[in-house]
Amino acid sequence: MDYQKIKQLMLITLKWFFICCLIGIFSGSASALFLVSLEFVTQIRIHNTWIIWLLPFGGLLIGYIYFISDSRIAKGNNLLLEEYNKPEKKIPFMMAPLVLLGTLITHLFGGSAGREGTAVQMGGAIADVCTSIFKLNQSERRTLIILGISAGFASVFGTPLAGAIFALEVVYFSKINIKSIFLSFVVAYIAYFTVEYWQIKHTHYSIPTIPKMNFTILFWIIIASVLFGLAALLFSRSTHFWGKLFSNNIKYPPLRPFIGGIVLAIAIYFIGTTKFIGLGVPEIVNAFSIQNTPYDFLLKILFTGFTLGAGFKGGEVTPLFFVGATLGSALSAIVPLPIALLAGMGFVAVFSGATHTPIACTVMGMELFGIDCGLYIGIACLTAYFFSGSIGIYKSQIVQGPKSILYQTIRKKGLKYL
Fold first, then answer.
1. Would the N or C end of the chain have less CB density within 10 A of its end CB?
2. Are 34 and 119 in contact (CB under 8 A)?
3. For residue 42, what is the domain's CATH number?
4. What is the pTM assigned to this prediction?
5. Residue 161 shares a structural domain with residue 227
6. Long-range pairs for 104-107: beta carbons < 8 A, 24 or more residues apart
7. Residue range of the domain that includes 176
8. Are residues 166 and 150 in contact, defined by beta-carbon separation less than 8 angstroms?
9. 227 within some domain
């Protein structure tokens, strides 16, 4: 027996376990701080609705801070994916505090955005610090980026299994080694339990009634899931459209969120409700028991796409939950399935389509709603994945696998709009 090799293997294992502990604890703590701060600024906005009129100035501040900072930071999650696909430069650590500040300002003044992007970017920036500390090579940096994404996602949503799989799936499984797979789960649970240690509570959802599967129910699940996929396509295209519109027509970046903030504040005033700004968690929870109007999901797509396209900060995933849950809730008027089941299916299926991650979203659905609905959730996520188009919310994501083959075939036949 070669004791030298065993010793070397043990040292490598201990090193990576220590790295996982560092990333998990610091990313989890950062997410805990973020969640507490997010709730604090949200309550300020709820009790002082006049503050929405300051949204343009909050946007100007965000735009200027990012303008004078490293230009790579503005890429957000796309920078993590780019560095994974082609490792070149370290992710600037300033990404973590800047995205935290930018997201809190966005939510304080009434922008429509999520939180996953913030947690994932903080996790990625924290993880990449280990590159210099442990003198890791570019190949090992890929593992660090996976760990950062995993820790950020798992800690902010309280779903460690889904977080670990999401980090692996969003960069596509075929380019990942066994070590990264194992470590992704380790760091996800460390980050998850770190947030638990800080006594941060996550939102709970319930699907009380799950019908027995039959061909009629399967038919309606597929019909609803196709619509979930098309909603994901609309969400992704909307965000990219507004981003391109602002960048092409307003050359000075800090002015983009300033002008966008003016439009948003006026729009919020005239529609007479604040249900489509911020995270929208109360509306998501209500969607599981109260039937939504058919246009709620469209307004959330519009507000979120405009907010992020203008240059405000935050994530897309919680708005995707809103879009899916409210669309599923509205479909309960014509689809003969329980409203909570439809809302839950939409919740994860729209997310699946917009991020090309059906496996992670299926697991997330089972973590959030229970394993009994796994078959329904899985069918919904897979169907939405195939009907959501070839471009998701992350422009730098490389789409591979069966979806890539499907859309390459579609393009050859001239249907390039997908």
1. N
2. yes
3. 1.10.3080.10
4. 0.95
5. no
6. 104/37, 104/38, 104/41, 105/58, 105/61, 105/62, 105/313, 106/58, 106/62, 106/307, 106/312, 106/313, 106/314, 107/38, 107/41, 107/42, 107/45, 107/278, 107/279, 107/314
7. 3-197
8. yes
9. yes
Give how far Cα 383 sits from Cα of 264, 376, 386, 398, 413, Å: 33, 11, 5, 20, 21
Q: What is the dihedral of CA 25, 124, 101, 192, to 10 degrees?
A: -30
Please, what's the b/e burial string for 45-56 (b: 16 or more CB within 10 A of its CB; e: otherwise)? beeeeebbbbbb
Question: What is the DSSP track for 300-313?
Answer: HHHHHHHHHHHT--
pLDDT tens, N- to C-terminus, the chain (418 residues): 578 888 888 999 999 999 999 999 999 999 999 999 999 999 999 999 999 999 999 999 999 999 999 999 999 999 999 999 888 899 999 999 999 999 999 999 999 999 999 999 999 999 999 999 999 998 899 999 999 999 999 999 999 999 999 999 998 865 678 889 999 999 999 999 999 999 999 998 999 999 999 999 999 999 999 999 999 999 999 999 999 999 999 999 999 999 999 999 999 999 999 999 999 999 999 999 999 999 999 999 999 999 999 999 999 999 999 999 999 999 999 999 999 999 999 999 999 999 999 999 999 999 999 999 999 999 999 999 999 988 899 988 877 666 656 566 656 666 555 5
Strand, helix or coil at 333?
A: coil
CA 389 vs CA 34, 265, 327, 404: distances in Å: 32, 31, 18, 10
Written as one letter, the residue type at 311 is G
> Rounded distance, CA 297 to CA 285, Å?
14
CA distance 81 to 9: 29
Residues 143 and 246 in one domain: no
Q: How many CB atoms lie within 10 A of CB 341?
A: 26
